[in-house]
Design a protein that fits this description.
Mean pLDDT: 91
GO molecular function: formate dehydrogenase (NAD+) activity
Largest sheet: 7 strands, mixed
EC number: 1.17.1.9
Family: Belongs to the complex I 75 kDa subunit family. In the C-terminal section; belongs to the prokaryotic molybdopterin-containing oxidoreductase family.
Distance between the termini: 51 Å
Strand content: 15-25%
Low-confidence stretches: 1-14
Protein name: Formate dehydrogenase subunit alpha
Radius of gyration: 29 Å
Organism: Paracoccus spongiarum
Shape: globular
Helix content: 25-40%
């Protein structure tokens, strides 16, 4: 009985029905029938099994699950239907008006018992010692049908390695050994670090295979052989679960009705006894999970079927990579030091906070109130982020607050704000199920947003069309049962040119939705835009030499998007992290308005946020020029709202962004920084400049789980709490506000919001929050888009998407349905301006960076889990032509150098990248990939241009002198004095 645990709901919360109803829900006209004398009405197309379950009647099942299409192989769910011959499977039999069903007749019971007897005859009887004892559907079903004995004589089987026919270890010991081992026995596969595969317990129900196909879309598993020789296989001959195409999403483990696929954590810690619903702290999809516990020990994370973002699915990170929360590297005691060349000294909280407060106040007294600032985190909750920016404005009395969200997605806020009037995506994730054409530009969903990618792949298998705009051949271009109609492999830095060329085709070929434009957009601005985009210099043919995209492919892709039905655009950091990131976002918005693809299911402009709370950290006012709700700090009426709430006067002058803070630090005017949950030394561009800025500061406070790279230059370290140890909310890429619930007590003693409050109070603030719900109440009282949000509302509705207010008390899943937030949609001219970062004789290649499935951001969390087995180091992807020209072979060390710096890493030869382009990830501090990225940035938002760096690649003998010096410096900076006796 997988997922048998009833969630632990907070007071007042409505419980959800977590039962597995056997088959998926259907939408159709109502159909009424009788099941065991009980009248039930269900939608047309529903199965008899689901109808019975909804009537409170449990029909035994093994191969059925309500997240998979009916299969009808196990024959345990047979029923009798009056007027029909035989005993059909209830999972594959649709209901009919007036149908009369009997689920417990003597004939049905006899058949079920006989079927179960056959299953058990080829199954080990080690239930008492099995890890799935009490959590096994086979065990439960045997009890349900009344099976008490197996009449068959033990013989050939799949579970006894000796071949003696024994069904248990005890029986095996009593039998004489045989000359040959059992050829049908397959040993347990323990290659995957997170789960085991024990074929001896497999009943070949195919649920794991179907979950891999229907839910995940990887098609890594198959049924090999026929009849009694059938067995589940993970890939080709010689493959195991680690080396196969399996992506360790856990869908197969969740689907398995026996202990065939079982989490190693359950084997070690035992069957969980309670659970808490919470939200994943990795990417911006915002998956809901049941954290299943034994006492206060987390046993496993199971994707929650009622989670509106993930609908019961997960990826390797959210499902399995939570072990970092208990990793030995966690720092649990506050630490201080007078200078960064000294070792750390552990102290009590009061001493650390007093030390930090005195330092920061002293700097303001000496250098002025604008000499210190804060950096908020896209990994922390909305409430924690709100308090950190409040610390800057209400305690430091300046607007020196910035966030990593600006470093990745600020062009989204600017571009969509200018065109649509709001700074966020337009749809919910369910919308993709109604898309006919999907364009992905500058995003890699299978690696960065895998649960959304699975939903997208399902829609593509149903017939939707796909356009990929990316310099690299990502998995979505071509993978199992999914292939893009068009891949436009543009040269890095030419996004604006490609998007404008697509608009040129749509306009000049008369493919615009004129009715939509006239009714929903500013017509005069549209006419001006048409004059601009119709110019021959914007045609695909004129742009081909610049972009590297074949004109014919670009024209065909533009026509498909304009004429293919519901068109949705999904984009990521490959759009925003450019010098023209904001321009590209506006160009994407132009495309959506040109084709009328706004304001209904299946369409829209949808940014895929990289971290779990990128959207929320923007919403909470982390930018130096904007208060919560994207309202400019210069506006007196906006400041008045917060001045009344906070009881202080707010500085009307915008503060410093992170690059400005670092520049000012080097110049000597910026002296103190409080950095919560962010590692700017590894994640921000131009590492040398970041290091110089941090080194020049006199007080750097790092508030995090681990001694990260930024902490090398810190004077105070405040231990943080993981998402498992706190209450709060995250806001995902679809504007969905999800509850984060405390699963276990903070190992450091405090949740992060409490630490920020303690620091503020040490500086004289006088804050008195006792629960993050009170912080959310303050957010709602001061921020119009959150006006209707409270913990009570979130408990009642599960989650809401802002805006949530009087006009939309249950939130807004879809934006701009009747009109844009700005009234009319605004077409904006998108002139292509080449980046100042150019390739040339010294640096002839273009480097672009990204992420990989198993790792997350700077890797601080995932590197401290078994995920390192899949990605132990950053690798440089280089085309074989470029490698041959430079004498580089597979696996060689190479020097990667730019105008900003150099590093070394190993190379892999691949045609995923085009000649002239190289690619790497930034997950490992040993590589410090951002040492080569430059300080060029988006013209409107200062978002760094990570995606275009001119580089040279040459053979190397191993780590560079700089890497070795950096490693030595990092090791020295992490020295901790032994605790006093």
């Amino acid at each position: 009985m997988k997922d048998f645990i009833i969630p632990q709901y907070p007071p007042g919360a409505e419980p959800h029905d977590d039962r597995d109803l056997g088959t998926p829900a259907r939408a159709g006209a109502p159909v009424s029938l009788l099941i065991d004398g009980i009248a039930v009405t269900v939608p047309e197309g529903s199965s008899v099994m689901r109808a019975a379950a909804l009537a409170g009647i449990t029909v035994p099942k093994l191969c059925a699950s309500d997240n998979l299409e009916a299969f009808g192989s196990c024959r345990v769910c047979v029923v009798e239907i009056e007027g029909r011959r035989g005993t059909p499977a209830s999972c594959t039999t649709p209901v009919a008006e007036g149908m009369v069903v009997h689920t417990q007749s003597s004939k049905v019971q006899r058949i079920r018992k006989g079927v179960m007897e056959l299953y058990i005859s080829d199954h080990p009887l080690d239930c008492l010692t099995c890890a799935a004892n009490g959590d096994c559907e086979l065990q439960d079903t045997a009890g349900m049908v009344g099976l008490r004995d197996v009449r068959y004589t033990p013989g050939q089987n799949h579970f006894d390695p000796s071949g003696s026919g024994a069904r248990s270890q005890a029986e095996a010991r009593l039998r004489m050994p045989v000359a040959e081992a059992n050829p049908r026995y397959t040993p347990k596969d323990e290659s995957n670090p997170y789960f085991t595969f024990d074929p001896s317990k497999c009943i070949v129900c195919s649920r794991c295979v179907r979950a891999c196909e229907e839910v995940q879309g990887t098609f890594a598993l198959t049924i090999e052989g026929r009849g009694f020789d059938s067995k589940v296989s993970a890939g080709a001959a010689g493959d195991d679960f680690l080396t196969s195409d399996c992506v360790s999403c856990g869908a197969c483990v969740q689907a398995c009705p026996t202990a065939t696929l079982q989490e190693k954590s359950v084997i070690e810690l035992g069957t969980p006894t309670r659970s808490v619903i919470t939200t994943c702290a990795y990417c911006g999809v915002g998956c809901s999970f049941k954290a299943e516990m034994n006492g206060d020990r987390l046993v496993r994370m199971v994707p929650w079927k009622h989670g509106k973002a993930n609908r019961g699915h997960s990826c390797i990170k959210g499902r399995f990579a939570y072990g970092y929360a208990n990793h030995k590297d966690r720092i649990l005691k506050p630490m201080i030091r007078d200078s960064i060349d000294q070792p750390w000294r552990e102290v009590e909280w009061n001493e650390a906070l007093a030390f930090a407060a005195d330092r920061m106040k002293g700097l303001q007294d000496k250098y002025g109130r604008r000499s210190i600032g804060v950096i908020t985190s896209s990994r922390c909750t909305n409430e924690e982020t709100y308090l950190v920016q409040k610390l800057a404005r209400a305690v430091f009395l300046n607007n020196n607050t910035d966030t990593c969200a600006r470093v990745c997605h600020s062009p989204t806020g600017y571009g969509l704000g200018k065109t649509f009037g709001t700074s966020a995506g337009t749809q919910d994730f369910d919308s993709v199920e109604h898309s006919d054409v999907v364009m992905i530009i500058g995003a890699n969903p299978t690696d960065g947003h895998p649960v959304f990618a699975s939903r997208l792949k399902r829609r593509l298998r149903q017939g939707a069309r796909l356009i990929i705009v990316d310099p690299r051949r990502i998995d979505m271009v071509r993978s199992a049962h999914v292939e893009a109609d068009y891949h436009l492999p543009l040269r890095p830095g030419t996004n604006v040119a490609v998007v404008t060329a697509m608009a040129h085709v749509i306009v000049t070929e008369g493919l615009c939705d004129e009715g939509f434009i006239r009714s929903r957009c500013d017509w005069d601005e549209f006419q001006h835009y048409v004059d601009f985009v119709s110019q021959p210099r914007h045609s695909p043919e004129a742009m081909e030499a610049l972009t590297g995209v074949a004109a014919a492919d670009l024209r065909a892709a533009a026509r498909l998007f304009a004429t293919g039905g519901n068109g949705a655009i999904y984009y990521g950091l490959g759009v925003t992290e450019h010098s023209q990131g904001s321009t590209t976002v506006m160009g994407i918005a132009n495309l959506a308005m040109l084709t009328g693809n706004i304001g209904r299911p299946g369409v829209g402009v949808n940014p895929l946020r990289g971290q779990n709370n990128v959207q929320g950290s923007c919403d909470m006012g982390s930018f130096p020029h904007e208060l919560p709700g994207y309202r400019h700090v210069k506006l007196p009426d906006v400041r008045a709202i917060f001045e009344q709430a906070w009881g202080v006067e707010i500085d009307p002058e915008p503060g410093l962004r992170i690059p400005n803070m670092l520049d000012a630090a080097v110049e000597g005017s910026f002296k103190g920084l409080y950095c919560q949950g962010e590692d700017i030394l590894q994640s921000d561009p131009d590492t040398h400049h970041v290091a110089a800025g941090l080194k020049a500061m006199e007080c750097v406070i790092v508030h995090d789980l681990f001694l990260n790279e930024t902490a090398n230059y810190a004077h105070v370290f405040l231990p943080g709490s993981s998402f498992l140890e706190k209450d709060g909310t995250f806001t995902n890429a679809e504007r969905r506000i999800n509850r984060v619930r405390r699963v276990m007590a903070p190992l450091n003693g405090y949740e992060d919001w409490e630490v920020t409050q303690a620091l503020a109070n040490a500086m004289g603030a006088g804050w008195h929050y006792t629960h993050p719900g009170q912080i959310m109440d303050e957010i709602a009282a001061t921020t119009p888009s959150f006006a209707g949000v409270s913990y009570e509302v979130l408990e009642e509705l599960g989650s809401v998407q802002w805006p949530c207010n009087e006009a939309a008390p249950e939130g807004t899943p879809m934006m701009h349905m009747d009109g844009f937030m700005s009234g009319k949609g605004h077409f904006i001219v998108t002139e292509y301006v080449a980046t100042d970062e150019r390739s040339g004789p010294r640096f002839p290649l273009l480097l672009t960076t990204g992420r990989i499935l198993s790792q997350y951001n700077v890797g601080a969390q995932t590197r401290r889990t078994a995920n390192v087995l899949w990605h132990p180091e950053d690798i440089l992807e280089i085309h074989p032509h470029d490698a041959e020209f430079r004498g580089i072979n597979e696996g060689d060390w190479v020097r990667l150098a730019s105008r900003a710096g150099e590093t070394t890493l190993r190379a892999t030869l691949t045609d995923r990248v085009a000649p002239g382009v190289v690619y790497t990830t930034f997950h490992h501090p040993a590589t410090q990939a951002n040492v080569v990225t430059t300080d060029f940035s988006d013209w409107a938002t200062n978002c760094p241009e990570y995606k275009v760096t001119a580089v040279q690649v040459s053979p190397s003998n191993g780590p560079s002198d700089w890497q070795e010096r950096y490693s030595e410096q990092a090791e020295r900076s992490r020295r901790i004095l032994p605790a006093a006796e």
